[in-house]
Amino acid sequence: MPKFYGKELESSLMLGTSLYPSPFILREAFKASRAGVATVSIRREGVTSRSGQKFWSHIRELEVAILPNTAGCHSVREAVTTAEMAREIFQTNWVKLEVIGDPDTLHPDSFGLVEAAQKLTESGFEVFPYCTEDLTICQRLVDVGCQVLMPWGAPIGTGMGLNNIFGLRSLRAKFPDITLVIDAGLGVPSHAARAMELGYDAVLLNTAVAKAGNPVEMARAFSLAAEAGARAYLADAIEPREMATPSTPLIGQAVLD
Fold first, then answer.
1. Does 96 qualify as catalytic in the annotation?
2. Tens digit of pLDDT for each residue in 76-121?
3. pTM of the model as a whole
4. Which entry of 96, 119, 174, 211 is annotated as an active-site residue?
5. Which of 24, 76, 99, 239 gets the highest tally of CB atoms within 10 A of its CB?
6. For residue 59, what are the CA distances in angstroms to 32, 47, 54, 100?
């Protein structure tokens, strides 16, 4: 089970809370997913407004851990200010840190991300940085105090899955004691299973569930896939090989003339 800054959760699935057709479907999807964490964007949901307060009441009813995020922030100052607002509103030191560098791909601004992570960590935040699988940047994030890394599988909302298996596997090998979460780009449950088979601790998704034809069933499918992938990793799957290996031993087989 994943552990985030000392807090252990029963589920390895984390869900976003935007784009759902209705609050009812949002609630039912969370139930089906058994997700342990809900991510909430303070900028998008406007929780201080009347409509935002109603939304916040729906989120509280989910009875899961809340992870505010700085979605849509393009500078260190903007991200830090948004995080400080989120801490005051949601009463948590957790923050999913996003500092966007490219508006088309939503690629993280790696330099700004490290700077913002350091500022927030020094202010007592427990930072979940949205990053890439770049080993150098991830090392810098760990050096400034991040105990969780959230590399993308693919750009946000694309549903392309895990674009760089080698890089993600290398990241897992380099940071065996850091909690790793695949964040962004997952489109179908098999993507989540593959991430967990690589030894990742959790997956976070939003669009793949919220925009599905049946969000509740898709949430349930992702839950089962994440669990299956985690169990497969713990079971120590066989290594792939190019040559066939018979499952029935040849010794003792009848010899016919």
1. yes
2. 999 999 999 999 988 899 999 999 999 889 999 999 999 999 999 9
3. 0.89
4. 96
5. 99
6. 15, 11, 9, 26
